[in-house]
Design goal:
The complex is a heterodimer. Chain A is of the alpha/beta class. Chain A has helices at 13-27, 45-51, 85-102, 110-117, 123-138, 154-164, 176-180, 186-198, 207-217, 246-249, 270-283, 298-307, 323-331, 347-353, 381-393, 395-409, 414-431, and strands at residues 32-38, 59-62, 70-76, 146-149, 168-172, 201-204, 224-226, 256-261, 287-292, 314-318, 334-337, 358-361, 374-376. In chain B, the strands form three sheets. In chain B, strands 1, 2, 3, 8 and 9 form a five-stranded parallel sheet that branches. A three-stranded parallel sheet of chain B has the order 4-5-7, covered by helices on one side. Chain B has a two-stranded parallel ribbon with strand order 6-10. The chains are: A alpha/beta, B alpha/beta. Chain A binds chain B through residues 279, 283, 371-372, 374-375, 382-383, 385-387, 389-390, 393-394, 396-397, 399-401, 404, 408, and chain B through 42-44, 333-335, 337-339, 376, 379-380, 392-393, 395-396, 398-399, 402-403.
């Protein structure tokens, strides 16, 4: 399996999905070698130390005790999911500056540095460099299927599949159209399309995504299968010790909390959340809107809240991880996901797992698997507000959504997703 | 209760033979109802147009063309062909009559024609197809009286048989209906758990009554037509008129009347025309009447002809819905019970306004359909029930209903402040009378 990220190094749903799927496959007794890029410059260096052996080679391996059949292999690379070529360039330049400082201020040209540390200066080249390294790594591994998660690993998947003669599955967790609307990056689109074309099977996380794959990438429907994501059961529900005190957050006791949790990017529809918030506040006062997450629209979201005159009612928490996520769910009365285009959307399932009722965009994959959720068109701000108010105002609605939604979510198991993937593998191995 | 086995029959004296061998009467009653569906009403709306006139009109016209018109014409044809030997009964809600008059007058005229044949009986129920029996006896009786009035106005009959919304029934209901002194019999579901080993094909008496009779739906034979008719996985498919008539004849001796009660929309709407449902019905009377002892009777005739054989005790509420035969389709979740409680909690305030439009809006919200739409039982299964639901989800329906109710509540408050000004000209005996007859 070729992935991008794995807990605890996660920035979003992709890492969660790879983790859930791999863990379930492990439980089904499947041998998985999970290959992922390992950034040298990492904010979470404690984990890196913990998980990687002291190896000077460009690839390394480690294992996680809870998964007996899974072996992890890492490739040094600054690739990060949800990145763009511009962000990549910034990150590389940042790394170079750090290196320059280490080199005692000696002025080196970027190209010299890159040669020295084996990074490509642009994302496109890096993706292909990564592919080459993956191919090398593949020679030392034995496997029957190559399973590549999202576009950055597709070139690697293609190469590995070609040199080893094993069939390729590409798993589409999101497409360039979801992330960028109509302003697609041609390079990424081309890589995605090539990956889907060269793959023997394409797995889409929803029918919604499947239809994008067929209509926007021209892939034949015969080869595109849908495997919905699952959700991890929530185990740490009873630690009451670490709750935020209301003073800390500035939220009053009788105030309801409406939560947005996700990257604050165009794809996630933060502007619709804020416009709906404004409408809600026209009708009721005792509500706070919490935006948990970071992203390229974070600053404009803060500005927009101010412009709408609801700045005092909107709290921005920045990116939350681990326990903080649990705490924010515990406080929330309602979770809203107004995504413009959401291939799946694991967060609403996690919200329901924490007994928080959800309003989700109809333009999402998760709306295919959730019936006990309120569904809206992301652009229909009036209707989003109408539904937010109803949930806050009528406890029976909240109770029914929470109870039925909760039991519905508990039926969405990663085990079933993994079993579906295995079935697809088996069919491929028979026909290839 | 059971009669002698067939082997002994020939040894019995002729009289006994005639009584025991008598084939059961076939009693058809069709339920005809359409609710007034709400329009999409958000918390930001403040007007008083709660109902979706366009949608209600188009559904009414659609059902009229697919079901009411062809079925009424078929019934007329059968009544004429069999010269009074084929009979049926209808329960038409006042709410439906209002819509038919407005959107499909041709259906009204075919119902008039049916009434004039003398072979058609009209039953009584709550005008608004409501669950008011469970929440307000005063309102319940008012709606029955309004229904009696409207049936009398359109069809010149005073109903003598009562059926409650969704055949909801218990001992208390029977006692209340008997105390109205207007009815000979009451209709409900022949549920297994109230009958035990007994057959629904006899006439019973409610435990709480001394005069009122109880007619029970034979759900097995009724559902063969209403639900299973087009089901190809059903071993009896295809159901033909002679096969069905054979099943009726099999009852021979074990019952006096087979009560076939079903939604009228069975014809052409639940069972589409291409399933052959109309042809089935067209051939059924002839097949049944092939046996000279067989006949069709209306519920009133059944009640008059046969004495009760036993009492039936129903302390807990039953209905004709689903396998549970209970109230869970309307009151099964927290949203449903909240919505209906809030609705009836307004009763006093609503009535105090004396404002006929407010009262009528409130009553229209009582239709059981609104609560049925909020049912979460079948939601996940993509059940056939979805077909009758104008909402995408039970949650949407609850939100919409509560928004409307909120607005209605605010109108009461406003009306109370101006009450003194209008009291002078709104009260008087005409105030509570039927709008539809004016």
């Amino acid at each position: 399996m070729l992935g991008w990220e794995f807990p605890p190094f996660i920035t979003g749903g992709l890492g969660t999905a790879c983790y859930g799927l791999t863990k379930a496959m492990d439980q089904l007794g499947v041998q998985v070698t999970f290959v992922l890029p390992r950034t040298v410059e990492s904010k979470y260096s404690t984990h890196v130390k913990l998980l990687t052996p002291s190896s000077r080679s460009k690839t390394a391996s480690f294992s996680v005790s809870e998964m007996k059949n899974v072996k992890f292999r890492t490739i040094d690379s600054p690739l990060q999911p949800y990145s763009t070529p511009d962000l990549y360039r910034q990150r590389i330049e940042e790394t170079l500056r750090q290196k320059q400082r280490l080199h005692g201020g000696a002025i080196l040209s970027a190209s010299q540095l890159i040669e020295g540390i084996d990074y490509a200066g642009d994302m496109y080249t890096e993706v292909h460099r990564y592919a080459a390294l993956a191919a090398e790594l593949a020679k030392t591994e034995e496997f029957d299927i190559v399973h590549a998660h999202d576009w950055m690993t597709y070139p690697a998947g293609i190469v590995v599949s070609a040199i080893t003669g094993t069939p390729l599955v590409v798993h589409v967790h999101s497409t360039e159209f979801d992330r960028s609307g109509e302003h697609v990056n041609q390079m990424i689109y081309d890589i995605e399309r090539q990956g889907m074309e060269r793959a023997h099977k394409v797995i889409a996380v929803s029918y919604y995504t499947r239809s994008i794959i067929i209509s926007r990438y021209g892939i034949s429907g015969d080869k595109v299968e849908v495997v919905h994501n699952g959700v991890e059961r929530n185990n740490n529900n009873n630690n009451n010790n670490n709750d935020w005190s209301l003073d800390e957050t500035g939220i009053k006791k009788d105030e309801k909390i409406v939560l947005f949790l996700g990257r604050i990017t165009m794809q996630k529809g933060p502007e619709y959340f804020l416009r709906a918030a404004q409408k809600v506040l026209e009708v009721m006062d005792n509500v706070k809107f919490v935006m948990a997450g970071s992203g390229d629209l974070m600053h404009s979201a803060v500005e927009m809240a101010a412009e709408l005159g609801i700045g005092h009612k909107v709290l921005f928490t920045g990116f939350l991880r681990g326990e903080d996520v649990q705490r924010i769910y515990k406080m929330a009365d309602l979770y809203v996901m107004p995504s413009v285009s959401e291939p799946f959307g694991i967060a609403p399932l996690e919200a329901l797992n924490h007994d928080v009722p959800v309003i989700i965009s109809k333009q999402s994959g998760v709306s295919e698997v959730l019936t006990h959720a309120l569904k809206v068109d992301f652009w229909d701000v009036n209707e989003i507000a109408n539904k937010i108010i109803a949930v806050l105002k009528y406890p029976p609605l909240q109770i029914t959504l929470r109870n039925y939604g909760g039991s519905e979510v508990r039926k969405l198991r990663w085990k079933d997703s993994a079993a579906k993937c295995l079935k697809i593998y088996e069919e491929m191995l028979v026909t290839v | 209760m059971r009669t002698a086995g067939s082997g002994k029959r020939q040894e019995l004296p002729l009289d006994t033979f005639r009584v025991f061998s008598k084939m059961p009467s076939v009693c058809f009653y069709f339920q005809v109802h359409q609710p007034l569906r709400l329009r999409h009403y958000t918390v930001f709306d403040s007007d008083q147009q709660y109902f979706d006139e366009h949608k209600n009109a188009s559904i009414c016209k659609k059902v009229a063309n697919k079901c009411y018109l062809p079925a009424n014409r078929l019934m007329l044809e059968l009544i004429r062909t069999f010269k009074g030997k084929f009979k049926v009964a209808y329960s038409l809600t006042g709410m439906l009559l209002e819509q038919l008059r407005q959107y499909s007058p041709e259906v009204m005229s075919t119902f008039h024609a049916l009434a004039e044949t003398g072979c058609v009986e009209f039953l009584a129920e709550t005008y608004y197809h409501s669950l008011s029996f469970l929440y307000s006896r005063e309102e319940f009786i008012a709606q029955i009286n309004k229904q009696i009035e409207v049936i009398n106005y359109f069809f010149g009959q005073k109903p003598r048989i009562f059926r409650n919304t969704e055949l909801i029934y218990n001992n208390d209901l029977a006692a209340l209906i008997e105390s109205m002194d207007a009815f000979d019999a009451i209709i409900t579901e022949g549920a297994d758990h109230i009958l035990g080993h007994r057959s629904p094909n006899f006439i019973y008496r409610p435990r709480s009554c001394s005069k009122l009779k109880l007619l029970l739906k034979n759900y097995s034979l009724s559902d063969d037509i209403a639900f299973r008719f087009s089901n190809r996985d059903w071993p009896e498919w295809p159901l033909t008129a002679d096969k069905f008539a054979g099943w009726i004849s099999n009852i021979n001796g074990n019952g006096v009347a087979v009560n076939l009660f079903m939604d009228y929309e069975t014809f052409g709407e639940h069972q589409w025309q291409d399933t052959g449902i109309f042809d089935f019905m067209r051939h059924l009377p002839a097949e049944i009447l092939k046996h000279p002892d067989n006949n069709f009777k209306t519920p009133s005739e059944v009640a008059q002809c046969y004495p009760p054989v036993d009492t039936v005790d129903v302390p807990h509420i039953i209905s004709w819905a689903d396998t549970e035969r209970d109230l869970s389709a309307w009151l099964g979740n927290a949203m449903q019970s909240n919505a209906i409680h809030e609705l009836y909690r307004l009763e006093k305030k609503i009535k105090q306004t004396n404002d006929q439009t407010i009262i009528s809006d409130w009553r229209r919200l009582q239709a059981s359909d609104h609560f049925y739409y909020m049912c979460t039982k079948y939601f996940a299964d993509g059940d056939v029930h979805k077909y009758f639901n104008p909402y995408d989800s039970p949650y949407d329906s609850y939100i919409n209903f509560m928004n409307v109710l909120d607005n209605l509540r605010s109108r009461c408050a406003k009306s109370a402040t101006t009450d003194r000004n209008i009291r002078g000209w709104r009260t008087g005996p005409a105030a509570g009378r039927l709008n539809i007859c004016n």
